[in-house]
């Protein structure tokens, strides 16, 4: 999920449970603009950092422990990453989202659109 600076959902892609989120990050960032992209250590890859740089934004991503050369990040800006977590928590207030009752992806995506619209209206 991609969220704005206020923690409101902008875009999402539903993947299988065993698929890593970083595989969909370039698709979420496509045609987006901004000054910085905040993400956690799981999104630390050279390819994603290059995509973010091509956008003209700063990658505020802490380096993974396995990285040989640590890339510094803006720790003050990184403190605002909790806004995406807040976005997920707001979505989880809807029980149907939190437990994923829907068996078909198309139904689950439809509900995500409804929940996101309700969050934007707050």
Automatic annotation (TrEMBL):
<dbReference type="GO" id="GO:0003677">
    <property type="term" value="F:DNA binding"/>
</dbReference>
<dbReference type="GO" id="GO:0006313">
    <property type="term" value="P:DNA transposition"/>
</dbReference>
<protein>
    <submittedName>
        <fullName>Transposase</fullName>
    </submittedName>
</protein>
<feature type="domain" description="Transposase IS4-like">
    <location>
        <begin position="4"/>
        <end position="119"/>
    </location>
</feature>
<dbReference type="GO" id="GO:0004803">
    <property type="term" value="F:transposase activity"/>
</dbReference>
<dbReference type="InterPro" id="IPR002559">
    <property type="entry name" value="Transposase_11"/>
</dbReference>
<dbReference type="Pfam" id="PF01609">
    <property type="entry name" value="DDE_Tnp_1"/>
</dbReference>
């Amino acid at each position: 999920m991609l969220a704005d600076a206020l923690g409101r959902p902008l875009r999402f892609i539903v993947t299988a449970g065993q698929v890593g989120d970083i595989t969909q990050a370039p698709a979420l960032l496509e045609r987006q603009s901004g000054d910085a992209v905040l993400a956690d250590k799981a999104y630390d890859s050279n390819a994603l950092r290059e995509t973010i740089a091509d956008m003209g934004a700063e990658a505020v991503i802490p380096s993974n422990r396995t990285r040989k050369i640590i890339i510094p990040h803006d720790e003050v800006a990184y403190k605002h990453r909790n806004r995406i977590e807040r976005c997920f928590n707001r979505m989880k207030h809807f029980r149907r989202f939190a437990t994923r009752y829907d068996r078909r992806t198309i139904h689950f995506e439809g509900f995500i659109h409804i929940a996101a619209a309700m969050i934007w209206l707050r």
